[in-house]
From TrEMBL:
Residues 70-271 form the Condensation domain. Gene3D superfamilies: Chloramphenicol acetyltransferase-like domain, Nonribosomal peptide synthetase, condensation domain. It comes from Dactylosporangium salmoneum. InterPro entries: CAT-like_dom_sf, Condensation_dom. This is Condensation domain-containing protein.
Length: 456
């Protein structure tokens, strides 16, 4: 894995506690489709894509208690006991251990220092440190003590362990175990079993069906072309914090009786096709509607692909209701066929000579507002009172991000956080900012039209 920026200087741990564990399900096998897709992303972005974070420990928590919790986690979750091995041809394989020892680091924050700032720096350091996929366990856990008392915990994992929804399932199961001392048995197909299914007859039938959709869709993509030269950093990340967008989205999803994620995707699709042509969308799909994947803690999310015509033959904007219908129909196929071998889709795109990174990549990661909005539907005055979002660029670098993409999260006060990534060789930062601002303005304009009777 390529090098990363130097981690911040930190003191050495006061001690490292060896935590021995044992669990079922040892073996060596192929990566699952989800694992292979995130592995390809890691290679493309030159990063091990660490996930996790830090938290405050409950009063009375002991280091021994944290060690016991780490032992339980390692035993329960197969992906936490998984490291990589490489075949003779370089192909990565998953190697699940049935036993082992993982280190729990304990740090002493200086008495006169802020333990929250200390653990935040420790968390950042552990994310920045290079990761050895063959030798290291997938988790780095550290306790911070302040004046002898455990106060904070940092947990950093490689993204091969799980996706976002699996992470939420993991946290809820750990919390239940902490509160009750028990947990339901693990459910669903663990990665070794899942990889075996995907390589078998049933999995290959699913893959063949998905590839037919991908071929039809890929044929609508533009041809591969060289990217433009860039003077300065090539990859940018920015953030739009908007209260106007969720206010308008509440109106639109209620009036259209449509899923808010579908409405948001349609807004972004229209905003991304200002110059005409079909909207190419790459939604992140959880795949947890598949049997055996509903509650598994594993990396099963994958990118789907769909294309929708959201403008008329002369490039004019369609009525939003029609654009929403077309995006919804295309998205259903995109969700259905995101469960696919990523190596096969990459080979298909290369064989067709199309731009496999074209379009808008979209990841709706909301939790609080994902299943609906609280309160009454906003009125016109509330819509008009919501100011345009605040935008700022946060990162400019040469290591790649995903192509043009938008991640959506809930933010404080009911706002939305849209994290925007762009390759300046494809779309300049100003163009990426303009895209999300157009989506926000379109949402408000369309919602006002519906409330005031100007649109149906």
């Amino acid at each position: 894995m390529p090098s990363v920026s130097s981690p911040p200087a930190m003191p050495r741990p006061a001690l490292r506690i060896p935590v021995r564990f044992a669990g079922p399900g040892a073996g060596l096998g192929e990566l699952t489709w989800g694992q292979r897709e995130i592995w390809l992303t890691m290679l493309r972005q030159r990063s091990w894509l660490p996930i996790g974070g830090w938290s405050r420990l409950a009063p009375g928590t002991t280091v021994a208690g944290v060690a016991a919790e780490l032992r339980w986690i390692m035993a329960r979750y197969q992906p936490m006991r998984t490291r990589l091995r490489f075949a003779a041809d370089g192909r990565p394989l998953q190697c699940v251990a049935d036993r082992g020892t993982v280190g729990l680091d304990v740090y002493d924050c200086p008495d006169d220092a802020d333990p929250e700032a200390f653990v935040a720096a420790l968390d950042a350091r552990d994310r920045a440190r290079p990761y050895d996929f063959v030798e290291e366990w997938p988790v780095r856990m550290a306790v911070v003590r302040h004046r002898g008392v455990p106060t904070h915990l940092s947990t950093v994992m490689t993204h091969l362990v799980t996706d976002g929804l699996g992470g939420r399932i993991f946290l809820s199961e750990v919390a239940r175990h902490q509160a009750e001392g028990t947990a339901e048995p693990t459910a669903g197909m663990q990665p070794l079993e899942l990889a075996e299914w995907q390589g078998g007859a049933a999995g290959q039938r699913q893959n063949a069906s998905a590839l037919r959709h991908w071929e039809r869709t890929l044929r609508r993509l533009p041809p591969a072309r060289p990217v433009s030269d860039v003077d300065g950093p090539r990859y940018y990340r920015g953030e739009l914090v908007s209260s106007a967008l969720p206010t308008a989205l509440h109106v639109l999803s209620e009036k259209a009786d449509a899923d808010s994620s579908q409405v948001l995707m349609a807004l972004l699709a229209v905003a991304a096709t200002e110059d005409g042509g079909p909207a190419v969308l790459r939604p992140m799909v959880s795949n947890r509607f598949r049997r055996g994947l509903e509650t598994v803690v594993a990396m099963v999310a994958q990118r789907g692909i769909c294309v929708a015509d959201v403008r008329g033959p002369s490039g004019e904007a369609l009525p939003f209701a029609e654009a929403l219908r077309r995006v919804g129909a295309a998205a259903m196929a995109g969700y259905k066929y995101a469960y696919v071998d990523p190596d096969a889709t990459a080979a298909l795109a290369a064989g067709l000579g199309v731009d496999a990174e074209a379009g808008l990549w979209y990841n709706d990661r909301r939790v609080a507002s994902r299943q609906g909005f609280a309160g009454e539907v906003p009125g016109p005055d509330e819509l008009r009172a919501a100011p345009p979002g605040r935008f700022r660029w946060t990162v400019a670098q040469d290591d790649p991000f995903d192509p043009l993409s938008v991640d959506v999260d809930d933010a404080a006060g009911g706002a939305f956080l849209l994290t925007v990534f762009t390759d300046a060789g494809r779309l300049a930062p100003a163009g990426a900012e303009a895209l999300v601002r157009r989506a926000e303005a379109l949402a408000v304009q369309t919602a006002l039209g519906l409330l005031e009777g100007g649109q149906r």
